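Comment thread on ticket #2218

A.B. wrote:
> Attaching the input chain for the structure job we discussed in standup.
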Amino acid sequence: MIAIVDYGAGNLTSVKKAFDRLGMESVVTSDPSCVRKAEKIVVPGVGHFDTTKKVSESGLRAVALDAISRGVPLLGICVGMQWLFDSSEESPQTTGLGLFQGVCGRFPAEVKSPHVGWNQLHMRGRSILMDGISRDSFVYFTHSYRAPIVPETCAATEYGGLFSSAVERGNVFGVQFHPEKSSDVGLRILRNFCGILLC
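C.D. wrote:
> Ran it. Output below, let me know if you need it in another format.
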């Protein structure tokens, strides 16, 4: 079972429908005991980084870290991916999980923000999550802040400079774009995630 974490900021219905379309059992939940029992965890997110504080306040942060330590695959989407980093300039007082080093920053003034619409993925090295995805495939974005390029970046995107559009290390994965809105490419990425076994 895939636990889709509800902390009040997710594009939950669309994410659930995408997994339903793939024939995968998933549940939208804010219950830590349910997340603890999940075989895979998805942390979606739309909106302000400050909302991720609710994950800590609900006890889900500790549950997520414990699950990761046990090898349970976890996927962060949009704000959920940014939460995997140290923090974000959008809410400097809110701490992320710190699984990837760096601070998420705002787009430069010379480009329109938020970054909304289809843009290209530029693959960087091998990736379980991106397996079978053609180089320079297009996916759907909507965000005002971006994650930096880090050693774990497995796909980057150009918009006012390069940023991490996907990161991967061990059983932890993050995508800045919305796979649930990215047509066949997004479904393939979610299918890849569903196929990942416990590390």
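A.B. wrote:
> Thanks. Noting for the ticket: The chain has a mean pLDDT of 94.
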